[in-house]
Each structure stands twice: as structure tokens, then as C-alpha cells.
């Protein structure tokens, strides 16, 4: 037995399992950077090795190094490839196949046989596949199973944890197994000797098919036309006479193989064979190596069948299976995968993986001929697949070895375009310059693999690209801040005139052409991804306009602009490459590329500090002094006016603290303390919070601070924008601008009393009560009667059957809720498109088709709701003392869910509820609080009195007493000046707006 050697060198890699918490972002970032550096380094090393192999170099030595191995090439260069760094840095473990054909680990024999016993017909047995690692991190070897006649997986007890690279030597090559960033092993094959070369299957599975058919011309050609066609073909191709009736005829069968280095030239002096895993050499002849592969090889999910592009290292072999007269069939790979064995003139033998499947397709159908479309060239092979159309000019099916007679059939057609044919090669001498395509009229007589014949007239389309001088202009686009039809969109348009068409024919062809605009977001290196980020077509998103850019173009004469609607929610700022193509069938009318730079609107244009809280462009903050001891806490979002497309997803950074961190400043500096807490709030120490022990950098009031707010724009998590602003925290009982007094939004209803004091609050800014609530308005307490909504008394129609809204319109039940209201499924599925049902006071019996149902009425719903809800001191809410079971029943109640869904749609009567308040005096520091309308004449239009009492109450006029023309969007907004006078006679004025509406 020949000595066979295999080595697998294993390397440790960093595998971290942690239940702790990272405390240093810098350390974590460094780990990521180091990991990415190793990944990039391996990619570069592999590329360098592959380049050397392509130049004819080979491996002279592979030796283990710390966490990896060093590969020395025949030119003396050494390249290191390492796994992710391990903690121990140990060298790898070596696996070998001994002379006895068994696996050895570090020189110790295992029980697993790695070489097949001698194969059939005395042929040498196959070598086992390379070891691998299973999901549990254990080594798996392949051992020979004599009973099954194949290699089977065997999981060893040897741990492979941490392995990220190993190498296998067998069959004259080294196979490097390198883990990528996903943990999946990638294979790189390198020649092991000076005369070695590498052969690989282009895919994990390569399906090689040839065709067979029974030769039956007499049976297949029954019409006079077919008989005449067959006779013409036999006169042209005299070799057909030697085919006996009912003989099995074969054609086709091409086997692709990848060969390295690139300078290796396969010739007929090489020996080629296909071998199964158990050693059997198949009776399939492989010959006539040709560089490149056919255009119709394709790879799909790792399986290759006819179609992939020609590459320098790809070769094709003719496949000639032997015919078994006894079995009446050709040799195949017997439903197994075979390895391609290649031996050169020097006797060097190399093998591919077991990847090839050779099988036969029996052809029973007759030959057919169809017309295709091709791209114009002065000469065109009509049987070759066109790169653009992906079709040939003449499309055959079930033909026999290209045996066909092709003729030009129309003299006018010939003279018009200067057509001539040489076999299958068409020459066009007079191609018009301003047309996108011409038709070439042919007659084709073709022979089928089964002896059938066909005589067809076909019209082949020859497409032509139109050359223009201009093209797309580059664009600079700022994402829209204006909502159009519910979305932030804008049209990005180009002018047709930019293409500089010289004739109406060209412009008309452009107008009618199918257009595709592919938009690619370039990466940080300016590289374009393989797949377009966005694609617009004339059928989907790419529109054609008249000169106004709004009305759709109707013909080439009014066609002036084209483009797409850019949705700000889908784009992120960056540089985009635009590839535009207009085609007519497969003819390219226009192809152009441009750059589009997309930017966010400027932060200072879309974000503003709340004017009432801002002085000299600095946000003035009072904050909440009760939330955190010794600190003023403030929600910064309350001080920023943000557009709705900015959303609520915002984070804040203390820029002064960040600068201090980057500068590694001293602990005594002001930047040492982060003004943003873990909840994203402004959190600032009160002055002298430790008395005399307070550090200088902990006196933070009345000091400006630089803050950055980072928003997500347009609901797109990948699009963020920074808004930088200044903030200052102030506190005092008196402030000149009344900034320690807060007025929340005050809204009143027409015809109702409005108590403004409930929405006005203040805090102490200085003194021992700093940060505590400052009571501006005292009250005597006691009980009052309050009008509340009586949910048990909905408004109804005149008949008292239906509940109605404020417009006295019945409430329609949403179709999606009908089953919840009690409709049966059979009735629901029988609903017509126009069937409608309305909410009734009592339960309502309804009929749909032949199905009867009872829909719940409002009384039924309220019977259930009243079990859980009531008015508590004038406020609607849970009944006191609900048990856990009752709360669970409430939450599961269908009636409660319907109540919540429909209660705001109904109009109700009101009822009186007693409200009890506790007595509370105003703070001692407050002398008086008065109110006055900012514009008395304006107020007269909307309130019953222009005088506001010290209790902050006023009564709005009934809507019927107000002129509709005085309202804006159905509401009125009045400014109120509130003056707060303290016991020292200082006066603070606060102006705010009250909204009065329904």
C-alpha cells in the first residue's frame, strides 16, 4: 500500500463565557477592533496565498505557530494564518493517516480506518474526507464502513473547543480550513509539490447531464412537411444514414472543473476519470479539455447545473459514457457523487471532492425552433447565448448536435439591412442608426435527437443600443421636512433634455422604454454593494412627467422629467450611486450613472429650545427637586421643540463631561461630574448640598453646560442626528422671568367653568426649601358637586333604540368587532360588502342570510363594566378593593374591552358627583396671585367676564354664543398674564395660553 499522509493542525481561539457586566467600554471596543483586525489579516493572507498559487507557486512547508500556522511557499515567502487569539497560545494537534490506513492523533493510533479497502477491480481505495467539528465542539473523523461500502462519520471523544483553523494534507494538496467571522469554516486548497496542481469542483454538487433518445425518424415525421425537412437534412448531413432505426442516440455532457494555478493547461495528455467513494472507476470517458465553460451553467444553493460565467481557471471536459448493450443504457454515477481524478504527464494525481453527478435525460419530445432576441453586432452567431438578452437568436429544443439548415427567407429584408448568412453567423451591413431593433426573417430546418425534423419560419429580433451624449446629473437631496399624504416624501427628478437626444425617434424610444433605476448606498470606503439598496422601475415607482414635474407625460413630445419619490423613512444620509438603464426588450436605449448625496435637514433648522424656557439661546432649567435627594432633575425633552419626524427616541450626552473624559481631566474639574443620569435626565447638584464640605465643582447652579441630544429621524433607527445646545439650572423664590412657575397646558370647554390653578405649579428655587413645592393657591377644602359623564345614560335616537354621538348619529359597529358583540361565525362569514350594524341600547337580534345572532347592547356592556368601575371622588376608575381575581376577570372581560373601544364615540347625559378636597393654605412666601387677560377685547368674545378672580377660575361662553368666524380650527386660544407677588413685594409675571374648545 502506498504511504498516505494527512495532517490536521488545530489551533486554540479565544472563547469567552461571561456572566458579569462589562465595566469598560474602551476594553470592549479594543476586543472588537482586535478581532476585526485578525479577520482582516486572515483574509489578506489567504488572498496572498491564492495569488502565489495562481503564479505557479506551491507549498513547501506548513508548521504550527502560536494560535495558527505558518505557510511557506516555493518562492521562500512565509505567510501566517491564525485563529482568534486563545488564552494559552498553545500549538496545534496533529492528525495523520498511517501506512496501515488508520487515523493517528499525535502519533497514537485510533480505531478509525481512514483509507477504503482496495476498491473494485483492484483499484486503490478512496481517502477519507477531512475531519470536522460538530455542534458540541468535538472532533468528527470519517472511517471506512466495509458493510456499507462508504465512509461514515464517527464522533470522537477529542475536544475541538477553540479551534478556528486547521490544515489537511492529502491527494497532493493542502486544504486549509479557516473559520470566518461567522464561525463557519472556509476551505482554501494549495498545491503540495512543484508539479502539483489543484483541481476543484466549482460547487458542492455539480450535475452533469447528457441526453439520450430512440432514433425513430419514420415514426416522428408523419407530415409531408416534416418528411421533406428530414430528407433535406439527410442530404445535407450524410452521416445520418449510418444511424439504425430504434438505435439509442446520445449527445451532450460537459463536466466543468476549476484548475489552479492559472498557468496549468489541461491537454489530452492528461488522464481524467471519475471515481466513487468506494474506489470504483466509472466507465465514463472524459476528454477534449477546453478552457472556459458554457454560458448556461448555473449555481443554485451550492448545486451547479448548466450556467456560470467563464473564468480563466475554469475548464470543460467532454463526457462520453460507455453504452451497455445488455442493459440498454449509458453509464452514470449511479445516484452517487463522484470525485474527478486527474493525472498529468509526470504521473502527479490530484482529486476533487465527491461532487459530480452524471446522469442521463431521455428525450421523447420532437425538435422545436423558436425565435429569440440578440444584441446588434456587425456579425452575430445566432446559436450563441446573448449576454444581455440571455437568449440565442435561434432557440432550439431537443435538437441533435446542431444539425440544422438556416436561411434568410425575405429578399426585401435582406436588401434593407444588408443581411447575409454563413452557417449560423449573421452579418448585418446596413444597421439603421436611430432604431432600437430590427427583425431578421429566417427559415430554419432542424433535426431532433429522436430523428424528428422541423421546418419553421421565425423572426429574430436584433436589438441596438442608442448612443447619446448626455446622462444623469448628480443630485444633492435634503430629506424632506414636509409631510405629503401622510409621509415625508419628495420627488427626485431628472430632465430628459440632459440626455441630449438628437432625434424624435430616439426620444420616443426613450419614452416607451422600460426603465430601471438602481440606487446603491456606498459604504464608508466608497464601495458599492452587490445588491441595490433600492430599485425603481417604470412599473414600480419610476414616474414620467411633463415639464411641471407633476402631470404624467402622455407621449415623447411632452415627456420632460422622470424620477422617483424618495421616502425619508427609508433613506439614511450618505452617498448613493445611481445606475439607470432604459431598455426596449433587451436593447439599451440609455445607460447612465450618477451620484446622489442625501443629507438630513440641519439640526438648527428642525430643533428649537422652548422659547419660554430660553434666554440668549440657553435653556433655563428649574427641574424637580424632590425626585433625587440633593439634585435638580429635569426631563430635557420638555425644553426642546422637536418635529414629529424626530420621534421620541432620544439620548443625551453631557459634552463637557465627555471632553473631560477624553482629556483625562482632574476629579476637581467641573467636567468630572456627568450631568446626564442613567435615565437620560438632566441631574445637577444643588449648590452647597454638603454645606462647607461641598466641592467647588459641585456648585452647578447658574453655570452653563453643553448638552447633545441625539434623535432618530423619520422612524429609521439607522438615521440619527445630533442637536447641540446649552443649558443652565437656576433656582430662587423670585425669578425675573417667573421661570420657577410652571403652567401646564390649560384647556377648557365651551360653556364650562375653567379652573386654571389646577394646571399651575411652582417650586422653591433658593433657601432651605429649595426644590420643594411652592404653593401658590390655597384652598379651604370641603365638598362640591361636580358634573361627570353618566356612562349609564347614553344619548339615543328619537325611538330610543340606538345610541348616538354628539351629532345625533348612530354609532356603527366596526366589522372586526361584530363577533365580539355576539355575531356568530356563520353569520359573520355571510356578511355582504354593504352590510352595516349599529350599537343599540338593548341587545339587538339580527339576521344575516339564514343566520340569526344577538348583538350586545350598551346596557349589557355597562352591566358588566359597573362591576369593576365607578366614580371615586369625581374621577372614573377602578372600584376600591378589587381582588386579584376580580381584576383578572375585568381584564379578560369582552364587555370591558368593548366599553373602552366605544365609550368615547357616544354622547351622554351628565350626573352629579361629590368631590371632597383637603384644605391647603398658600405658602407663607406668597403674598398674592392675580390673573388678567392679556387682550381684554379678545377675551370678551369667549368668556362671560373679563375679570378673573384670585381663585383662577373663569367661565367660557357657550359655543352658540361665539361667532364661528372668531374660532380657529374650532377653538380659541387666549393669553393670560399671571402676577405672583411675594412677601417682599417682588412681582413675577407669567404669561401662558388657555385653549377653549368643545
Q: Give the DSSP E fraction (strand runs of 2 or more residues).
A: 35-45%
Query: Can you summarize the main beta sheet?
Result: 5 strands, mixed
Protein structure class: mainly beta
Inertia-based shape: elongated
Q: Which consecutive residue ranges, at least 5 long each, have pLDDT under 50?
A: 1-32, 85-90, 119-123, 298-310
Write the layout of secondary structure elements.
Layout: H1 25-54, E1 59-65, E2 68-73, E3 78-82, E4 95-97, E5 102-105, E6 108-113, E7 132-133, E8 138-145, E9 150-159, E10 165-170, E11 173-179, E12 185-191, E13 198-200, E14 205-214, H2 217-220, H3 224-236, E15 248-252, E16 254-260, E17 271-275, E18 284-291, E19 298-300, E20 303-305, E21 314-321, E22 323-324, E23 329-330, E24 339-343, E25 349-351, E26 356-362, E27 368-371, E28 373-375, E29 379-381, E30 394-397, E31 399-408, H4 411-417, E32 419-422, E33 425-428, E34 437-448, E35 453-463, E36 475-478, E37 489-495, H5 504-512, E38 514-521, E39 534-537, E40 542-545, E41 561-567, E42 574-584, E43 587-599, H6 603-606, E44 608-609, E45 614-615, E46 618-621, E47 631-634, E48 640-641, E49 650-654, H7 655-663, E50 682-685, E51 704-712, E52 720-729, E53 741-743, E54 746-749, E55 753-755, E56 760-763, E57 773-774, E58 782-794, H8 818-821, H9 825-829, E59 844-848, E60 851-855, H10 858-865, E61 869-872, E62 875-878, H11 884-892, H12 894-902, E63 908-917, E64 926-933, H13 936-940, E65 953-955, E66 972-982, E67 987-997
Helix pairs in contact: 10-12
Amino acid at each position: 500500500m502506498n504511504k498516505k499522509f494527512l495532517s490536521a493542525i488545530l489551533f486554540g481561539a479565544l472563547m469567552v463565557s461571561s456572566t458579569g457586566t462589562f465595566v469598560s467600554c474602551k476594553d470592549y471596543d479594543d476586543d472588537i477592533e482586535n478581532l476585526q483586525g485578525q479577520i482582516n489579516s486572515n483574509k489578506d493572507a489567504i488572498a496572498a496565498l491564492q495569488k502565489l498559487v495562481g503564479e505557479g507557486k506551491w507549498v513547501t512547508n506548513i508548521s504550527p505557530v502560536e494560535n495558527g500556522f505558518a505557510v511557506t511557499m516555493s518562492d521562500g515567502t512565509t505567510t501566517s494564518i491564525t485563529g482568534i487569539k486563545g488564552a494559552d497560545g498553545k500549538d496545534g494537534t496533529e492528525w495523520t493517516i498511517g501506512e496501515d490506513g488508520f487515523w493517528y492523533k499525535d502519533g497514537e493510533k485510533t480505531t478509525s480506518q481512514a483509507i477504503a479497502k482496495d476498491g473494485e477491480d483492484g483499484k486503490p481505495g478512496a481517502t477519507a474526507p477531512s475531519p470536522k467539528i460538530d455542534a458540541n465542539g468535538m472532533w468528527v473523523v470519517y472511517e471506512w464502513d466495509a458493510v456499507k461500502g462508504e465512509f461514515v462519520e464517527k464522533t470522537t471523544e477529542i475536544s475541538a473547543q477553540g479551534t478556528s483553523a486547521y490544515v489537511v494534507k492529502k491527494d497532493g494538496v493542502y486544504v486549509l480550513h479557516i473559520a470566518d467571522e461567522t464561525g463557519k469554516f472556509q476551505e482554501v486548497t494549495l498545491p503540495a509539490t512543484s508539479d502539483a496542481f489543484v483541481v476543484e469542483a466549482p460547487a458542492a454538487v455539480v450535475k452533469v447531464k447528457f441526453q439520450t433518445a430512440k432514433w425513430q425518424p419514420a415514426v416522428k415525421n408523419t407530415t409531408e412537411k416534416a418528411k421533406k425537412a428530414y430528407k433535406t437534412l439527410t442530404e445535407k448531413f450524410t452521416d445520418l444514414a449510418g444511424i439504425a432505426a430504434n438505435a439509442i442516440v446520445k449527445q451532450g455532457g460537459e463536466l466543468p472543473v476549476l484548475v489552479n494555478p492559472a498557468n496549468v493547461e489541461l491537454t489530452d495528455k492528461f488522464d481524467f476519470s471519475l471515481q466513487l467513494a468506494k474506489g470504483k472507476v466509472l466507465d465514463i470517458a472524459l476528454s477534449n479539455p477546453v478552457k472556459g465553460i458554457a454560458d448556461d451553467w448555473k449555481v443554485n444553493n451550492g448545486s451547479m447545473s448548466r450556467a456560470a460565467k467563464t473564468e480563466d481557471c475554469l475548464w470543460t471536459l467532454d463526457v462520453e459514457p460507455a453504452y451497455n448493450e445488455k442493459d440498454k443504457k449509458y453509464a452514470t454515477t449511479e445516484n452517487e457523487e463522484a470525485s474527478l481524478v486527474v493525472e498529468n504527464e509526470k504521473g502527479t494525481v490530484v482529486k476533487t471532492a465527491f461532487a459530480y453527478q452524471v446522469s442521463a435525460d431521455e428525450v421523447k419530445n420532437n425538435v422545436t425552433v423558436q425565435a429569440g432576441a440578440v444584441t446588434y453586432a456587425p456579425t452575430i452567431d445566432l446559436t450563441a447565448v446573448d449576454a444581455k438578452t440571455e437568449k440565442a437568436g435561434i432557440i432550439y429544443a431537443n435538437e441533435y448536435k446542431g444539425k440544422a439548415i438556416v436561411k434568410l427567407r425575405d429578399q426585401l429584408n435582406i436588401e434593407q439591412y444588408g443581411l447575409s448568412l454563413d452557417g449560423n453567423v449573421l452579418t448585418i451591413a446596413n444597421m439603421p442608426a436611430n432604431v432600437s431593433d430590427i427583425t431578421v426573417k429566417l427559415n430554419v430546418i432542424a433535426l431532433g435527437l429522436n430523428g424528428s425534423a422541423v421546418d419553421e419560419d421565425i423572426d429574430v429580433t436584433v436589438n441596438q443600443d442608442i448612443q447619446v451624449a448626455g446622462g444623469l446629473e448628480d443630485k444633492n437631496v435634503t430629506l424632506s421636512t414636509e409631510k405629503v399624504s401622510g409621509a415625508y416624501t419628495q420627488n427626485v427628478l431628472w430632465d430628459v433634455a440632459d440626455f441630449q437626444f438628437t432625434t424624435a425617434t430616439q426620444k420616443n424610444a426613450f419614452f416607451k422604454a422600460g426603465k430601471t433605476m438602481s440606487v446603491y448606498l456606498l459604504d464608508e470606503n466608497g464601495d458599492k454593494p452587490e445588491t441595490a439598496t433600492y430599485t425603481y422601475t417604470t412599473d414600480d415607482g419610476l414616474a414620467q412627467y411633463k415639464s411641471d414635474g407633476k402631470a404624467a407625460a402622455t407621449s415623447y413630445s411632452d415627456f420632460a422629467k422622470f424620477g422617483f419619490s424618495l421616502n425619508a423613512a427609508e433613506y439614511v444620509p450618505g452617498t448613493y450611486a445611481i445606475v439607470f438603464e432604459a431598455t426596449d426588450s433587451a436593447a439599451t436605449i440609455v445607460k447612465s450613472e450618477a451620484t446622489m448625496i442625501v443629507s438630513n435637514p440641519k439640526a438648527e433648522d428642525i430643533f428649537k429650545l422652548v422659547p419660554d424656557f430660553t434666554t440668549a439661546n440657553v435653556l433655563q432649567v428649574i427641574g424637580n427637586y424632590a425626585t433625587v435627594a440633593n439634585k435638580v432633575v429635569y426631563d430635557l425633552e420638555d425644553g426642546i421643540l422637536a418635529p414629529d419626524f424626530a420621534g421620541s427616541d432620544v439620548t443625551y450626552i453631557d459634552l463637557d463631561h465627555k471632553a473631560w473624559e477624553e482629556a483625562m481631566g482632574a476629579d476637581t474639574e467641573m467636567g468630572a461630574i456627568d450631568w446626564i443620569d442613567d435615565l437620560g435626565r438632566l441631574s445637577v447638584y444643588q449648590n452647597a448640598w454638603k454645606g462647607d464640605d461641598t466641592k467647588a465643582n459641585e456648585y452647578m447652579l447658574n453655570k452653563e453646560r453643553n448638552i447633545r441630544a441625539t434623535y432618530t429621524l423619520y422612524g429609521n433607527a439607522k438615521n440619527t442626528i445630533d442637536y447641540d445646545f446649552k443649558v443652565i439650572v437656576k433656582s430662587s423664590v423670585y425669578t425675573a422671568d417667573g421661570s420657577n412657575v410652571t403652567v401646564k397646558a390649560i384647556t377648557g370647554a365651551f360653556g364650562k367653568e375653567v379652573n386654571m390653578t389646577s394646571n399651575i405649579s411652582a417650586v422653591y428655587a433658593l433657601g432651605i426649601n429649595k426644590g420643594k413645592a411652592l404653593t401658590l393657591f390655597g384652598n379651604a377644602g370641603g365638598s362640591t358637586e361636580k358634573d361627570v359623564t353618566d356612562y349609564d345614560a347614553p344619548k339615543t335616537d328619537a325611538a330610543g333604540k340606538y345610541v348616538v354621538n354628539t351629532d345625533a348619529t348612530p354609532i356603527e359597529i366596526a366589522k372586526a368587532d361584530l363577533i365580539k358583540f355576539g355575531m356568530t361565525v356563520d353569520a359573520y362569514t355571510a356578511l355582504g360588502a354593504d352590510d352595516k350594524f349599529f350599537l343599540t341600547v338593548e341587545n339587538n337580534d339580527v339576521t344575516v342570510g339564514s343566520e340569526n345572532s344577538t348583538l350586545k347592547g350598551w346596557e349589557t356592556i355597562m352591566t358588566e363594566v359597573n362591576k369593576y368601575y365607578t366614580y371615586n371622588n369625581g374621577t372614573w376608575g377602578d372600584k376600591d378593593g378589587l381582588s386579584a381575581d376580580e381584576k383578572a376577570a375585568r381584564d379578560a372581560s369582552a364587555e370591558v374591552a368593548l366599553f373602552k373601544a366605544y365609550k368615547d364615540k357616544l354622547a351622554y347625559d351628565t350626573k352629579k358627583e361629590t368631590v371632597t378636597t383637603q384644605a391647603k393654605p398658600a405658602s407663607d412666601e406668597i403674598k398674592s396671585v392675580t390673573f388678567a387677560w392679556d387682550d381684554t377685547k379678545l377675551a370678551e368674545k369667549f368668556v362671560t367676564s373679563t375679570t378673573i378672580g384670585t381663585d383662577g377660575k373663569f367661565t367660557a361662553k357657550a359655543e352658540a354664543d361665539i361667532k364661528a368666524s372668531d374660532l380657529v380650527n374650532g377653538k380659541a386660544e387666549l393669553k393670560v398674564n399671571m402676577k405672583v407677588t411675594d412677601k417682599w413685594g417682588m412681582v413675577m409675571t407669567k404669561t401662558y395660553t388657555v385653549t377653549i374648545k368643545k
